[in-house]
Each structure stands twice: as structure tokens, then as C-alpha cells.
Fold this sequence. Notes:
Layout: H1 5-27, E1 29-38, E2 48-52, E3 66-73, E4 79-85, E5 93-98, E6 101-103, E7 109-111, H2 116-123, E8 126-132, E9 138-145
Antiparallel strand pairs: 1-2, 1-8, 2-7, 3-4, 3-5, 5-6, 8-9
Amino acid sequence: MKTWLFPIVQTAVVVILLMSYYAASWFGEQYILRAEPFDPFDPFYGEYVLLQYPDLKSNSITDDSSVYFTLKEADDGYAVIDRIENEPFFGAIEGSIYGGSVTAPQLEQFYVEQGQGPLLESARDLQVTIDVSSWGTIRPINLQERSE
């Protein structure tokens, strides 16, 4: 086999993975989530803010399990859960429920510039802007203090 074929395949795989991540912004919808911070620091990665989302609650599924959900924009401009199920469906975001709150791994923490973590934690009222692709990929874009 040609010695140049393997590096080309490896490069193509990495490019496809990167493009699928950024494609959420190119082809997806943008939502703004109301967020509340807690606990900011990791000795290896630096400062980050762990987030919880007061609007992402589930009344229909209450057991602590994996769920699949979609978002929609509410009347106040913030995203809420549109559809939530135990089984996967096209366009669903894979997440989990803990104590009635719904979250996804991409939404749990947000890395910030050094020195910004404590400032954002003390703000208490934050908003996160995310892009969600039609196939369920989430890309967090921005974390800022909420102005209401």
C-alpha cells in the first residue's frame, strides 16, 4: 500500500470531525439559555464555570436516566425543552436528568479567560448562547451576564 495514503486518511478524518463541530453554527439554530453558575477551577484546564439551567426541567421523565430532547424558543426569548423522550430520535440532543433538571455534557461547563470565573460566579444571572445542529450537535458560543 502507498505510504502516503494513511496520512491522508488520518487528516481527512480530523477535518471531518472539526467540520461537523463547526457545522452546528453554519447550519443549525441558535438558542439562548438562562444559566446559573457554581464552582470554578480546574488545576489542569484553568478557570471554568459549571452551569445549571433553571428552564431545562422535565415533568414527564423524572428518573435519573439518559434522555433525548430538543429545544424551542419561549416567549421571553430563552430556550426551553420542546420534546423529551427516553428513546433517541433524529435531531435530538443526548442528555441526562438528575433531580428533575435536564443537561447535556456540552452544556455543563464553560471555560473562561483566567480571572473571569469568580466574576461570572458572583453574577448569578447568566445566559449561554449555543448553536444546535439539526442532527443534535451542540456548540456553546458565548457566556455572559444576563440583563433583564
